[in-house]
Structure formats: C-alpha cells, structure tokens
Amino acid sequence: ISGEIPSLDPANAYDTISGSIVYQVYEQLYQYHYLKRPYTLIPLLAEALPSVDKNGTRYTIKIKKGIPYHDSKVFGGKTRYLKAQDFVTQIKRLAYIPTKSNGWWLFDNRIKGLNQFRNSVGRDFEKFKTTPVSGLQTPDDHTLVIGLTSPYPQMLYSLAMSFTTPLPL
Hints:
Elements: H1 16-25, E1 30-33, E2 40-43, E3 51-52, E4 58-62, H2 84-95, H3 114-121, H4 125-130, E5 136-140, E6 143-147, H5 155-158
Antiparallel strand pairs: 1-2, 3-4, 4-6, 5-6
C-alpha cells in the first residue's frame, strides 16, 4: 500500500488505496469476470443476474442463502446471515446525508422514493432506520426488488460497485 487508507466504509471508499482493500474484504451482488473480454458481470452474492421487467424499471434479485457475516459481539453471539434488507440499508446509507457518501450519484433521482427519503430523514438516525423507501422492497429475506424512476441501463454495473456492499443494521 502506497499510503494511509482513507476509509474502509464502502459508502466512501472510492480512492485507489481504499479500493484496493475494500474489494478484497467486502463482496457485492455482482462482480466482473476478469478473464472474459469484453468484461462481463457475474453473480457474487446474488444467485443469478437480475430479472428485469420489460420497462427496465424493476429489478428483482435473488440473494444467495447461508452467507454468514464474520462473528461479532454486536450479533449477540449468534451467527448473522446476509439478508436482502442489508442491501436496502446500504443503499439508504448512500442517501443518508451524514454518511457523506461519494457514491450517492449512482442512485440520485434513480430509485423511487430515495430522494424523498434523503430529504425527509435529514440527519435523524432513528428516521433513517424506520423510514422505508418505496423503490427498495424485500418480499422475503433473500429477494431484493429495486424500482427505478426510469430505465437506468447502468444499474447492474452500479450493483457491482463497492458502494453497494451490504451492511447489517
């Protein structure tokens, strides 16, 4: 490493040094298959590529089951497994003003209700935890549904970026 690591928070780790660590530590829904040309996205935490409606505004993603987080006291001595809600939490973190995420641009005015969430929650962490976003749904623990305001062809590639690394709340 050529210098100090500015951040290990996936919401803010967008510099070269942080990125070199973050992509070795965290996982996203999708990753690039670096041996294929042109570059192709493949599932990482997702079971498969998303199902996208004919309008290109609704992405349904199945999440792999049985993926544990590292043990931590915050989980009360129990193994905490990845859930679809963890992706919702992270996308909300990008919109949450106190996070000061440099990845907010990915979803600004793109996910239904996310800008309203950002404006109504402000800096209130209790509201952050309890305020839903209409375009982020979890019908069950292993299904994430993202509703867009309009087609966003780069959406799949956004879900391969470190900004969308799932974090438990």
